[in-house]
């Protein structure tokens, strides 16, 4: 009974990661599922795909480890955030496909609300911006477009949830309709200062508050599942980026992490203070334990590892992501090719969904090596944009500790060359941890701590160890000249 099962329900796959009593990974199982694009800018998941791939991964990881549910002390759930589901309380049947965080269908609704002057009120309560990224307008869309949905919701017959809530509902056989504070903080409906659903925003969007889940601490009692062969409690829940920040032990104010998967999400812990961003970052909940909220500033970039996928699938100049750094290292140092990967617009701090990508500085000698280097560098430049905005919102000097180190994880953090460039362009150290499964580890720790098999926060933080530290080697004038060129390239791209 000392193992912890982490369920990581992501945008493209569901994973189950089994940890032993010493917080070491014992086995991993993963299942991909289909992405649906019913119209331009729309992205949907079939709810049953999310559920079945999660359940099957959970069974598979136990089989792989030769263990059963009786060996599992607790389950932790971490998930793609903002993705929106609505289901019937009697049948458990979703009334629409899940509308995924990437989906832009509510851009018009957001624009109309902004024009009507509602954004300052919404930002003050939720810490978020009026962007289709968040759940609130997606939920409104479902209530507006599925016949009879709003009346059924008002009659208490429908439930809303982000993916964590839906999985808890399914795992507990419909006994628990719950979420945690980090997921609630991404809905556009939750007042992160007061710690409760905002009646004002729900009224504005015509969303019945009764259909929203009860919000709990990240380490709490979320119900018991009987579906794995023996009863197992669900004791930890957190959105995937917040779980990664916990797995990176970014518990103290001033600590920050950046996760490089398909996109990049940087979180800076601001402690018990909600720092309201003046620079188009998001304010969000990093963690809630024993009713105590830690806040974070977050910067979200939509294209990070995806730029490497583009080199592979779009241009065909590499066969595998791992080849990109070898190619980048062969780039001609005399060329200065800059790639702005605004393939789906620009996220923080620009928030320009309409803008598209551009390449500058091409010569007749520019080829795959120069494009590869520019692609990897774009990830470093975008991270610097986020950290510049964080510095403007909350200067290092005011953070109470000189913590400029960035902790990194995610698939792209495997590239030493990219991480060295990141340190160079930030002018600050970059630490890569020994355990790269930081998202799963974060939520496993929440569940394991609650179950009494894992240590408390301080002891857990002390177990964090770096596998590699990248320190800046680029001279300051070169760093600033290169960054100035990037800023000019972004400005030019936004002006087209
Ligand atoms: N060695 C590498 N160098 C550069 N990018 C990489 C490397 N390995 C993986 N990636 C990129 O990392 C991403 C996968 O990271 P992962 O954390 O699994 O993402 P996600 O959870 O978003 O699916 C892909 O976009 C891939 O292109
Ligand atoms: O599923 P991921 O890892 O791409 O994460 C998605 C984020 O939670 C979206 O906000």
From TrEMBL:
EC number(s) reported in the record: 2.7.1.30
Keyword annotations from UniProtKB, A to Z: ATP-binding, Glycerol metabolism, Kinase, Nucleotide-binding, Transferase
Pathway: Polyol metabolism; glycerol degradation via glycerol kinase pathway; sn-glycerol 3-phosphate from glycerol: step 1/1
Regulation of protein activity: Inhibited by fructose 1,6-bisphosphate (FBP).
Molecular function in Gene Ontology: ATP binding; glycerol kinase activity
Domain (Carbohydrate kinase FGGY N-terminal): residue spans on this chain: 4-247
A single GO BP: glycerol catabolic process
Protein known as: Glycerol kinase
Domain Carbohydrate kinase FGGY C-terminal: 257-449
Known catalytic reactions: glycerol + ATP = sn-glycerol 3-phosphate + ADP + H(+)
Positions contributing to ATP binding: 11-13, 262, 305, 309, 411
GO cellular component: cytosol
Naturally occurring in which organism (per UniProt): Thalassovita taeanensis
Binding site for glycerol: 81-82, 133, 240-241
Chain sites annotated for binding sn-glycerol 3-phosphate: 11, 81-82, 133, 240
């Amino acid at each position: 009974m000392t193992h912890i099962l982490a369920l990581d329900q992501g945008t493209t796959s569901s994973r189950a990661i089994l940890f032993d009593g010493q917080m070491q990974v014992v086995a991993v199982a993963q299942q991909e599922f289909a992405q649906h694009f019913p119209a331009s800018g729309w992205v949907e998941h079939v709810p049953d795909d999310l559920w079945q791939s999660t359940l099957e991964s959970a069974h598979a990881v136990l089989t792989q480890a030769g263990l059963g549910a009786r060996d599992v002390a607790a389950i932790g759930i971490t998930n793609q955030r903002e993705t929106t589901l609505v289901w019937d309380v009697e049948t458990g049947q979703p009334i629409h496909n899940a509308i995924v965080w990437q989906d832009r269908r509510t851009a018009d609704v957001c624009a109309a609300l902004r024009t009507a002057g509602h954004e300052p009120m919404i930002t003050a309560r939720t810490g978020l911006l009026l962007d289709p990224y968040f759940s609130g307008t997606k939920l409104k869309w479902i209530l507006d477009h599925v016949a009879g949905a709003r009346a059924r919701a008002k009659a208490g017959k429908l439930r809303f949830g982000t993916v964590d809530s839906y999985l808890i509902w399914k795992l507990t056989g419909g006994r628990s309709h719950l979420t945690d504070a980090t997921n609630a903080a991404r809905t556009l409906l939750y007042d992160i200062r007061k710690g409760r659903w905002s009646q004002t925003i729900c009224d504005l969007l015509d969303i019945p508050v009764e259909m929203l889940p009860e919000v709990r601490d990240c380490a709490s009692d979320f119900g018991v599942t009987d579906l794995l062969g023996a009863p197992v409690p669900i004791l930890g829940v957190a959105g995937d980026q917040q779980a990664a920040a916990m797995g990176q032990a970014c518990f103290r104010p001033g600590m920050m992490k950046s996760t490089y998967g398909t996109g990049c999400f940087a979180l800076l812990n601001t402690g018990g203070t909600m720092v309201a961003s003046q620079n188009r970052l998001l304010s969000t909940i990093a963690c809630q334990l024993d009713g105590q909220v830690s806040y974070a500033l977050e910067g979200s970039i939509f294209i990070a590892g995806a730029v490497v996928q583009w080199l592979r699938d779009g241009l065909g100049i590499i066969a595998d992501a791992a080849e990109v750094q070898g190619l980048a290292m062969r780039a001609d140092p005399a060329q200065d090719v800059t790639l702005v990967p605004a393939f789906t617009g620009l996220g923080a701090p620009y928030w320009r969904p309409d803008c598209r990508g551009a390449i500058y500085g091409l010569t007749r000698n520019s080829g795959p090596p120069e494009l590869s280097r520019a692609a990897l560098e774009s990830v470093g430049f975008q991270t610097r944009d986020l950290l510049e905005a964080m510095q403007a919102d909350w200067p290092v000097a005011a953070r109470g500790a000189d913590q400029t180190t960035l902790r990194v994880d995610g698939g792209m953090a495997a590239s030493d060359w990219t991480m060295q460039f990141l340190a160079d362009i930030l002018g600050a150290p970059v630490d890569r941890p020994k355990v790269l499964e930081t998202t799963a580890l974060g939520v496993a720790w929440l569940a394991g701590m609650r179950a009494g098999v894992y240590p408390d926060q301080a002891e857990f933080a002390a177990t964090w160890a770096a596998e590699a530290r990248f320190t800046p080697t680029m001279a300051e004038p070169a760093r600033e000249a290169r960054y100035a060129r990037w800023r000019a390239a972004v400005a030019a791209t936004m002006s087209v």
